[in-house]
Amino acid sequence: MSSPHTLADRQYDFWADAAADAVEERVDSDEEIVIKGGISPSGVPHFGNMNELLRGHFVAEVLRERGHDVRQVFTTDDRDPLRKLPRKLADLDGNIVGLGEVDASALGTNLGKPYTDIPDPFGCCDSYGNHFSEIIRQSADLLDIDLDIRSNTELYESGAFEDVTRHILAHADEARAILSEYQDKVDESYVPFNPICAECGTVTETVTSIDIEAGTVEYRCTDIEAGGQTIEGCGHEGTATLREGKLPWRFEWPAQWQTLGVDFEPFGKDHAEGSWPSGEHIARELLDIEPPVPMVYEWFTLDGEPFSSSAGNVVMVSEVLDLLEPEVVRYFFTKDPKRARDFSIERLDQLVDEFDRFERLYFGETDGGETETARAERAYPFVTDPDEERIRIPYTFAAVLGMTDDDELRATMARRSGHLPGDASDEQIERALGRVEKARAWAVRTDNEYNYRLAEELPDVAFDDATTNALADLAEYIETEQPDGETLHEEIFETARDHEVDVGEFFTAGYRLFLDEEQGPRLGPFLAALDRTFVTERLRLRG
């Protein structure tokens, strides 16, 4: 069997080109190319799941650039049975909630049943499975990904899976022999089909006979082991058509490849070590089809810990986009998929700084190494439409601007700091300041050093004469020298010493004057960013 880990030996500026080359070697140039991702609705569809969407999206875009007709499909494995109660769920607005905040009985009384047969605990969609699919659809829309979402339930009920299911059951002995090479629990009674019990609605595993010509199976509803517990079968004996059940995952995945004509599929390393080898074997030996071109990606962590719905270590796409522009998110996924990475909410400023440099490299506005420059020149147009007139305010400075809600003051502060050109158009200003609300949301979410509000009126303060005189001298220095942030920061120290004021107390006085707080961001750069007249008047205890 081939290894899914390596697409090509030679170096590429953008990994999606390697995948596109591999796909072109497989397909006829006139055929529609199908790229697939997929997921089972077993937990909150979180930002980590976007690997499935964005990896495929970039490959699709590269192929479209080369003139191919491409369709990106995403399957929701919503005929899978609910095996255990999730601890966390998400509503359609992206809010993550516990079971106590929804109709948990909708889930608790339906263990073992397909997700699309379980009522939506939020009461807003036709089923829990549909609720999950809607979140995926919304996430794709937010990231501007053109996605054809396909429900496994619909594929079974429409008959789309019927031919491949019939073929697998007609060759059940061969299917059993193949799977036994990968799983120990495959015995002579194993049948690769799970009927849905007509009596209790659970997905059962005991097939007693197969009628290929009629396209039916006889079954008995028996206990199934799921999530460390036993879900009791009702004992009902009945007949199910091939549309009234499902294939086990190891066969369902290759069935998707055949039914949907899949040419390329990225997937996590867990599948590379498990389902991929058996899937490739089943595709070639049992279904007589060529498996899609595979690409394995490494999972990434969230603030240093694995994504976990049960532990609450998740973030939704909608939440991330409250903090970052979509192009920054897309940039994150342009990085090498073979390397494990951490997506840190705490350090989003570093990610945005990376993106801003990546953008400047593309436009030739900064110098970089040959490799990083070539990567930026190749990948940037797939991240956003190039715009030489764009203005990017540094993320942490945008967080400083977020300390006030006054748009005019924000623009004044941005101009004062040199981050907003004096000749910027109204449209450019509006777009540039759009980052401010996101940086402000980041400061509030992480409660970091930028989570303060500018005191737009003079706070009720009283200082001794030495401090008052030192503040007045600092105002005089700012008017005369017009220093940059670092120079001003050093001058604050010197002014305190010249007036024999405790340095710590002098900084506290500054924070009280401008933030009505005891502490805050680095005071020199902060004051240098503000309107000079506003700063000097406030230091003189006026207004």
UniProtKB/TrEMBL annotation:
Name of the molecule in the record: Lysine--tRNA ligase
Entry keyword set: Aminoacyl-tRNA synthetase, ATP-binding, Cytoplasm, Ligase, Nucleotide-binding, Protein biosynthesis
CC annotations in GO: cytoplasm
Catalysed conversion reaction: tRNA(Lys) + L-lysine + ATP = L-lysyl-tRNA(Lys) + AMP + diphosphate
Subcellular location: Cytoplasm
EC number, UniProt record: 6.1.1.6
Family (UniProt): Belongs to the class-I aminoacyl-tRNA synthetase family.
NCBIfam families xref list: lysS_arch
Tree of life domain: Archaea
Motif 'KMSKS' region, residue range(s) on this chain: 306-310
HAMAP family (UniProt xref): Lys_tRNA_synth_class1
GO biological process assignments: lysyl-tRNA aminoacylation
Molecular function as annotated in GO: ATP binding; lysine-tRNA ligase activity; tRNA binding
Organism encoding this protein: Halosegnis longus
Enzyme class per UniProt: ligase
Record-linked PANTHER family: LYSINE--TRNA LIGASE
